[in-house]
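@channel sequence for tomorrow's demo:
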Amino acid sequence: MRARVRVEVEYLITLADLAVTPFELGDDDREDLRAHYRAFSEEDAQLIKRLETEGYGEYAATNHDVKAVEYFLRVRTDDRLHPWIHFGLTSEDVNNLAYRLLIDGALEEVLLPALRDLQRAIASDARTHRDLPMLARTHGQPATPTTFGKELAVYAARLSRAIGDLQTAADGLTGKLGGASGTYAAHDIAYPDVDWPAVARSFVDRLGLDFAPLTTQVNPGDDLAAVFHALVRTNNVLLDFDRDMWRYVSDRYLGQRQADSETGSSTMPHKVNPIDFENSEGNLAKANADLAFLADSITTSRLQRDLSDSTVKRTIGAAFGHCLIGYQKANDGVASVVPNETVITQDLEDHPEVIGEAIQTILRREGHEDAYERLKAHTRGETTVTLEDFRSFIAELDVPPSVTEELMALDPASYTGRGAELVDALNSR
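C-alpha cells (generated this afternoon):
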C-alpha cells in the first residue's frame, strides 16, 4: 500500500510539472504529498482497506485495491488535486512499479546484504583454515587430499559469483506507465501534444527502474523471472554448502560450539544437532519451490491482460522471507562450528591409499607406462593399505635413488597440491 501511494504521489507531482496541466505544486505542497508515503502508518493502511471493503465517507466500497489507494489520497488531499490523482492510469501502471520498488528494496536493503555477510564469513573461515589438510571424498570414497580452507573457498567463490548475478538482475528491474493497453491512449486523447512516452521514461527512471517502452497492460515479468532465477541459483549454492557442512558435522570433522541452555534431543542428552544448517536447507528448498513457480507463472498473461499474476505476486514476500531465514541460519551455522583437527588428521592418516595417485604420476613422469596398472593391482579393493606397503612397493622399483627418495617422502597430509594457495584467489573478490 505504501509503495502504491508513493507511485501515485510521484506521478501527481510529475503531472503538475507539465506545462499543459492546469495546476501547480509548491515546495510545501510536494513535501505534504510525499509525507503520505514517507510517514505511512498502520492507520493509513487500515483506511485504504476500509475504502476497499466497506467504504468510507462519500466513497462506497471499491472492491479494488488500487482504486482504494486513489480514494485514500482524495480523502487526505485538497479537492483541486482530485481530478489528477491516477489521471490516465490503469491499476497495473501503479502495481508494476510498486512491486518492483518493493522487490528492489528487499534485494538491496535485506537479501543482498545478508548474502554478502554470509559470503564474507565463509571466505574468512577459508583463509583461517587454508593450510588444514583434509581427506577429500569423490563418490563418497576417499580421494586425493585437499585443505578444509580450499573447500570453503570454493563455496565462497561460487557465492560471490551468484551474488554478482543477483545484483545484475536487481539492476535490470523495469517499469511501465503506458495505460490500459500500453498505448498511452487515455493520456494522448487528453493532451495529444505531450510526448507521453518521454514523460513515462523520465518518471520510471526517477524511480530507479529501467523503462519498458513496449508492453501490454502488463509489464512483462521477464525481469522478475531473472531475479527469481538468480535467487534459485544462489540458493542452490547454499543448499550444496548446507549439506556438505551437515556431513562434516556428522563425520565429526566439525565440532559445534555448545550453549549450556540448549537441548539437542528430547530423549538423548548427549546430542548437539546441526540445526542451523538443517534449518537453512529447509527454508532455501521451500524458497526455491516458490521462486521457480513464480518465475514460470508471471511471464505469461493472456492477450493484453489477465489477473492470474496478481494473486501469485502476493507470495513474493513469503519466498523472500524463506530466503532470508536460510541465509541467516547458514551464517549462524558457520559461526557455530570449528574444525576438529584431531579427527580430520586421523581420517587422513587412516587412508594412505590416496597417495597412490601421486606415486603412479611420478612413475609416469619417469617413463613407466604401466604405473597405473601396477598401483591398481597393489591397492584397489584392499581392505587396508599402509604406508609401509607403499614403501615396500617403492623399494622394489627400478628408479634412480633421487626418485626413490621423492616417493618415500610422500604422505597424505602433504599431498594437497596447491590447495592452500588457491584460497588466496579469494583476495581478489
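heads up for whoever presents: The CA atoms of residues 2 and 41 lie 9 Å apart.
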